[in-house]
Hints:
By secondary structure, the protein is an alpha/beta fold. 34% of the residues lie in helices and 19% in strands. The chain contains 5 helices and 5 strands; from the N terminus they run βαβααααβββ. The chain has helices at 10-21, 37-41, 51-54, 57-65, 79-97; strands at residues 3-6, 26-30, 100-104, 107-113, 135-140. Helix 1 (10-21) links the parallel strand 1 and strand 2 (26-30). Helix 1 (10-21) runs parallel beside helix 5 (79-97). The radius of gyration is 18 Å and the shape is globular.
Amino acid sequence: MKVGIIGAGPIGLYAAFRLVKAGKDVVIFEKDNVIAGNIRSWGFVRLFSQLELNLPPDAVEVLKQQGKSLPDMKEFLTGAQFVESILEPMAEYLKSTGKCEFMFGQEVLSVGRARFLKTEAIAAAGDSGRVGKPFRLLLRDASG
Length: 144
């Protein structure tokens, strides 16, 4: 079974990175037609924290192993610089693993458990009625 991630921004990409490292197959659903679509809309703005606070050490290690030249970890990047120097290489790495698929232009409207209505199998803590049941996503693409 694949793990679904909503959003191909920094959090979604890092979550996918960790899941792929753990051997899981991942699908990332992104509303825009490119990774980090939201960040691209404010790419001229400088991030409020240094790169070292926005990029975990294990991701740094893998990007360096891939031969990527990274900015100084003390630098305050703009959104556009963050996308170009960190997020795009991270997405390239994820694609190269064969364990991560990107679904662009897919807005996630709803997440629910397969074959359950909202009021079904909701009980006290410890009820196992929903445990192990797959999730189902309701998506909208560009055509509506």
